[in-house]
Structures are given as structure tokens and as C-alpha cells.
Amino acid sequence: MYIKLWSLPPAEKIFEPEQNWTILDKFPIYRLQLNDNEASFHKKVELPFQGRAFDLLSYLLAEHEEEIRSYSPAAIYIGSARGELGTLTEAIIAYERGEKPSPRLSPQTSAGSLASVVAQYLGVQGPALVISQTCLSGLAALHAASLFLKAGEGDTVLFGAVEAPLVPFFIETMAALRIYTQQKEYPFSRPGDTAQINSFALGEGAVLGVLSEKPISPFRLLNVKVRTAPPRSGMAFSAVDEEAVAHLLSEIRSKPDFVLLHAPGTRQGDTAEWHAVSQVWGDLPALSIKGLIGHSLGAAPLLGLAAALYLLQKQKWYFPPYPTLWPQRAPHRWKEAVVIGLGYGGVMGAIQIKYEP
């Protein structure tokens, strides 16, 4: 299977992030600038519903609509951990003030609408599903798309993910976990910092991609795996189980040239993930983009994939401006990469990609 991907931020902009960082109620966040006057966002598709998640999808659709339509996808799978969170929280606040909800509120804030409105806009009559599985959601959407093709239901699928969690209430819920960054200057989030600090920071993003049996790009999907860690005492809300992650990665037969880690800037999680990676593959070039664009929850794995494809094609590497647990060296070869996704409840996944120019 072959893969083509478009993202917000665009892949090359992932490595130019500073202008999009801002402070919301004392918390650093990564927010996309969707100004209609910007050359990169010069038009917008009008979807039936408004809201930040729908806005991100509409900008991405508008930018690549012609090419997406040319592939005639037979189904759509979208990942989102939180759905249209902004509209929902605003409506709850209004309700507490005594205002009546809009009749559009329920369909607008139902996660499934993120896929169905795209299907209706593009005229896709096959399955249009949203998969919500914490921070693994986008990776799980790609997994579902691959199963659709393997089942012989079609030869091309549109998949993706969208996340817009930057509302004060949700930021506070993440701060309540005591992992939110206390850094006062960029880089606000520092995944894998050898100082062993918690520096989680939220971001937002969207990805759309086409998965096809046809050779539509030089990127071939070799493997996409989804697993769940068994329960362990004292780890009810763990996002990283070192032993389980190592077992997952051992199912990928070939050692990649580099790995895009999940690593969101949490002391325990980053360490456990890297230990699992090095246990299976030893020291190899590794990188987390969460320090560049924050953690966009369900969209994060596919934004990691967008970064991996860009690095493979450009044969460029990014070096964080602080010492990390993993080696800071560029790959010797630019053929294969693995992207890891992890989430609450022990859900995990890995994407293996090969570049064949």
C-alpha cells in the first residue's frame, strides 16, 4: 500500500514552529495561524458546521481538494480524541448562564460529524467513521483504512485526524495531571530532556491522507500495528508500558533508519518509551516533534508521520537545542522510518514506512 499525506501545520513548517507558540491563561500552547490573508491558507471550504476542528479540516480540504477528489476514495476514517471541543465547552458555559442550546449543537459536537461532513462534501458514499482512542486516534484511523483495503472493499481510502483542544477548561484538565510545562521560554516543551522534567504542552493540528493499492507516491506503508498493554498494578492511567511497547516494536522485523517517538515531554513516559525502543533496536537516531508543535492528542501520530515522510524525502535532520535521552545524530540511511503512537489505557501503535524514490 502507498501513502500520500497533507497536514496542518504543513510538514516543512513543523520544523519552523516558533511563531505559532503563545500563552493562554499562563499555559504555553501551539496554535495554528489560519489567517485568510496568508498565502498558505488562501481559501476555505464551507462545511455545514463551524468550530475549530471543522475549521482545520476545511482549510486542509480547500488546499488539496482537487487532488483528493482525483483519487476517488471509497471510504473515510478520521481520528480525533476530543472532537469539536471548543463549541461544546462554549455551549456548556452558555447553558450555565441560562441560554438554551442550539438545535445544531448535538450534531455539531458529535465526533462522527467530523467524518460524515467530509464524506458528504466529497460525495463519498462508503463508510465515514471517526475513531476516538485517546492519543492513538489518528494511527488507529490509518490502521482501519489499511484493513478496509485488505478486505477488498476498495483500492483507495481517505484517512486523517484532527484535534483542536486549546480551550481553557481542557488545558486545566491536563495541568491537573501535573505534567504541564513550567518553561517560560521556547522551547516550552522538551521531550526526552536529560534534566528529567515534565514539559508537556498542548498543540493542535490536522492531517488528511490517501492510502491506496496504487503507487500514488514514493512512500510505501510496510506495517501499521495497534495493540493494548495488559493491566498492571498501580498503572491505571498509564500511557506507556515499557515491556508492552518493546513487544509491539519487536513485531516489526527490520530495524528502521530512524524513529519518530511519541514522547510528549513527560518524565516517566519519555524514559519508558526510549528504553523500550533501545531494548529492541539499540541506539538509533530518534526524534519527538512534540517539542516543536506541542501534543495534538489524536492528531499527533499522523503529524509524526508527516514529519517522517518529510525527513525521508529531504534527508534532513532536526537537532533539539537541549541534551536528550536518545542520540542526537542524523541517520546514515534514509529508507525506512517507524512512527510510534501511545495513549491512555495502554493503547499503542507503530507505523513502518519505506521511501522508494
Would you summarize the structure shown here?
The chain is an alpha/beta fold and 357 residues long. It is 32% helix and 20% strand. The strands form three sheets. The protein has a five-stranded mixed beta sheet with strand order 1-8-6-4-5, with helices on both faces. A five-stranded mixed beta sheet has the order 9-13-12-10-11, with helices on both faces. It has a three-stranded mixed beta sheet with strand order 2-3-7, with no helix packed on it.
Can you tell me about this structure?
This protein has 2 domains: 2-216, Thiolase/Chalcone synthase (Peroxisomal Thiolase, Chain A, domain 1), CATH 3.40.47.10; 220-355, 3-Layer(aba) Sandwich (Peroxisomal Thiolase, Chain A, domain 1). Helix 9 links the parallel strand 10 (258-260) and strand 11. With 357 residues, the chain is of the alpha/beta class. It has a 5-stranded mixed sheet with strand order 1-8-6-4-5, sandwiched between helices. The chain is globular and about 55 Å long. It has helices at residues 11-14, 52-70, 85-96, 105-109, 113-122, 137-150, 168-175, 242-250, 267-281, 290-293, 300-314; strands at residues 2-8, 21-24, 27-30, 76-79, 128-131, 156-163, 202-203, 205-212, 219-228, 258-260, 286-287, 336-343, 347-355. It has 11 helices and 13 strands.
